[in-house]
Amino acid sequence: MSIGAVLAFLRDDFPEVTISKIRFLEAEGLVEPQRTPSGYRKFSPADVERLAYVLRMQRDHYLPLRVIREHLDAIERGESPPALPSAADARPGPLEEADRELVASADASAGVRLGRAELLAAAGAGERDLAEWEAYGLLAPGPDGGYDGEALQVARLVAELGRYGLEPRHLRAMKAAADREIALVEQVVAPLRRHRNPQTRAHAEATARELATLSVRLHAAMVQAGLRTHG
């Protein structure tokens, strides 16, 4: 099957899946489709079954890719995979819900370009709000004066936090922390991005996304732990 046919097949059960998601799982080594002489991917029924397993474990049990890979490795060895968490343990908390919403929003907004008025309408904000967000460095337009999907996500989240009384000046610490996390990720992936091998460069992008997700989870876990301590 071609990657387009695989996408159409999987979307019956996993409507949120995208071609970029399938390519990401390939870059992470969770599936290894064959390649035609011209470089096109060809997925076998076993490949499609693996993809469905990965997506199901993420959706139903919120397992990270590392754990899902261990499950697949055990199955390939003819062993029983590790026991799945109970329904109570698997229920997503605020951290997991935020992570899933972020991924879904990123997939949906891929390739989006918005003008200033469109961004304001989508975020439910006013011109004065946007000017203040930009003044505090929370987001900025691209070289063409437009805004991408990530800027829209930031705008919506900043607007939502504003409804709780958190102003842009309060969010500068979050922006500074994000900048430091970006620098750490870049330290890891920069050597991979400079590599001549296209597959290595593709792995760099997959690694950057995975590190970003882990960074978000760590930050949220620390905040939750701190709030619990003071509760």
From TrEMBL:
Keyword DNA-binding included in the entry's annotation: yes
Gene3D superfamilies reported for this sequence: 1.10.1660.10
The keyword DNA-binding is assigned to this record: yes
Domain annotation HTH merR-type: ranges: 17-74
Pfam families: MerR_1
Source species, domain of life: Bacteria
Keywords on record: DNA-binding
Record region (Disordered): 78-100
Annotated GO MF terms: DNA binding; DNA-binding transcription factor activity
InterPro entries in UniProt: DNA-bd_dom_put_sf, MerR-type_HTH_dom, MerR_fam
Protein name: MerR family transcriptional regulator
Organism: Streptomyces rubellomurinus (strain ATCC 31215)
Lineage: Bacteria, Bacillati, Actinomycetota, Actinomycetes, Kitasatosporales
